[in-house]
Each structure stands twice: as C-alpha cells, then as structure tokens.
Model the fold of this input.
Amino acid sequence: MQSETRSEIQHNMQDNNIKTRGEFKFSYWKILTPVIIGIGVVVWMMFRDTQSQDFSAAWQSINFDLATITFIILAWMCMIGRDFGLSWRFRALTDKQITWKQAIKVNCLCEFTSCVTPSAVGGSSFAIFYLNHEGINFGRATTLVFSSIFLDELFFVVICPIIYLFTPEGELFKSDATMFSQGLELTFWCVYAAITAWTMILLWGVVINPKGIQKATKFIFSIKYLRRWQPQVESWTDNMSNTSKELKEKRLAWWFKAFCATFLSWTSRFLTVCAIFAAFIPGCMPEQWLIFARQIIVWVVLIAVPTPGGSGVSEWLFTEFYASLIPSFEMALILAISWRIISYYIYLLIGATIIPKWIGESYYRINKPTTKA
Done:
C-alpha cells in the first residue's frame, strides 16, 4: 500500500514537472516573440535609414575624442541614476522589506513591461505582481503601486509649469505655425490636463476621501451602459480605500524620501538626452535647458501614444522636435538611435533574459506539488 502511494506521488510529481516545463516553454516564446519581431523591425529600419551617403558622412564627421566619450559614458550613468532612483523608491515604499537585488529586478521587469505595452499602460500596472512575487502581500503591493503612480503623476504636475514658465516664449514649442507644432502643443496640454485630473483623483481618493470616490464611481457605473464594468471598478475603489488607510499612517519623511527618489529617476532620464547632445553636438551647451525642457514635452506626449513603448513615434517625434537644434536630419537620426538604445532597447534585452525565469518561478510557486507525510 505504501509502495503504491509512493508510486502515485512520484507519478504526480512527474506530471507536474512536465506541465511546468511545457508552460515555461510556452510562456517563454509568448514573451520573446513580440520582442524579437520588434527588435527585428527596428534593426531593419535602422539599416534602411543608415545606408545613405549623408548618414555615413554625418557618422564620419563625429570626432570620438575624450569629451565625446566622456559624455556618452555620462549618458549611460544618467540611465543608471534613473534605475537607481526607481529601485530606491521600491526600497523606500516597502520600508526596506525587499533587498536591493529584488528592487532592481522589479524595476527591470517594470521597464521591460513598459517597452512591450502602450505608454498609457506602462510598467507600474504590473508592479503589483512583481512585488507580490518578491514577498509583498497583494494588498500592500497594491497600496505601494498606487503610491508610485501618484508620485510619478505629481512630478509631472509640478515640473511642467516650471518648465513652461522658465523657458523663453516661443522656444519650448516651435514658434512657427506648422501643423506639427500646433498639434504637438495641443496634444501636450490635453495630456497634461488628463495627468492633472488623474493626480487629483488619486490625491482625493487615496489620501483625502476614498469613501467619496467609492460612492461617486458606484453611482456612475450603475448606469445601464456602464454596468458591465461595475465589478472591476468596485474592486479598484476597494483597493483605493485600503490604500488610504495605510498611507494615512505614513510619516512625512516617508513621502519625502519616496518623492526624492522619484525626482532623481525622472530628472536622470531627461538628463540622458542632454548628455547625448553634448557628446555629438559640442556647440549645444547654451541650449541645454531647452533640450531638457523639450524632453519633458516628449515624454508627456508619448503617454498618449498607443504603440508599445512609444516605438516608431518616439524616434520620429525626437527628430522633428529637436530639428532646430541639430545641423542635419542624419545627425538627428544618430542622436535618436543613441537615445533609444540607452533608454529603450537595452531594457528589451534585459527583460528578455529575466522574464522567462520569472514566469517559470511564478508558475512553479502556484503549481508546486504538495505531498502528505
């Protein structure tokens, strides 16, 4: 009898292992296929655009002296600073419950998710699952992600008016009356208005009066044509209410540390472009503030872009928006490619190496075989 029981247990464990390996393989290719296709398309576009003689001439005109190499290294350091800021924020929000290694892994997973999903979705939406995988219970992970989103939106609500006020009139957006300039400015202000409204909703619903948000949303989604989304919305408002209870107990120092980490991460991201300009266009130093300011505009506009990670649109927007500061289209293409390699493609590669293992670990935890003594 015991031998039969032992045999059955071993058989079930083998079935579980086979199932796990099969699921792992499926998930692996499910994730990697769009990444490989995306990188392939980008490589093809880069190859096509870099075959012209003008591009070759622009590349050969770059003098890779000590200053150029220094600023290229500085650009990479800025992105490291950005990742440090976000990892620091995960550590701060969890009260150091996760290690630096875990925080860095969660950050890399979030960045990979941002690369393969539309900008409006972003990686923050999936951070709940990544934090839960690292030992943070689901309810608390939801609280921390709500806090992260609020801090990100608050940064843009604060920084955009500062940028607008301290940039000379007519320089932030091109002073010409072209359709591109007018469309870009209109898109920016519409997205900024949406960010501001969302930030106020989060502030009111998470910190001030979550019960009021619950009542309002339940009333709105009780309407006949919106009733189908009522269960999801009620779940969202319940999470917001639970978030409010925990966040009201946090001290001001907790919020200050988290916002400092947010400020570091976003400003480091924008300074990456300033370093790239300094590397390839030596005479651009007087324009550094404008380069920084326009980068914020670019990121706000990209929030409304439906393509994964803003791919395609971001490169085009970069070359068009910075055209007045760059001597030629070919040089603009070099800068755009350099910017996307540092801020986008590198995270595709990092994520492609981390995500399959993460899926395998998650599946194994859920389907871990249990045996009775």
Summary: The CA atoms of residues 159 and 296 lie 9 Å apart. DSSP finds 13 helices and no strands in the chain. The two ends are 14 Å apart (CA to CA). Residues 1-27 have pLDDT under 50 and may be disordered.
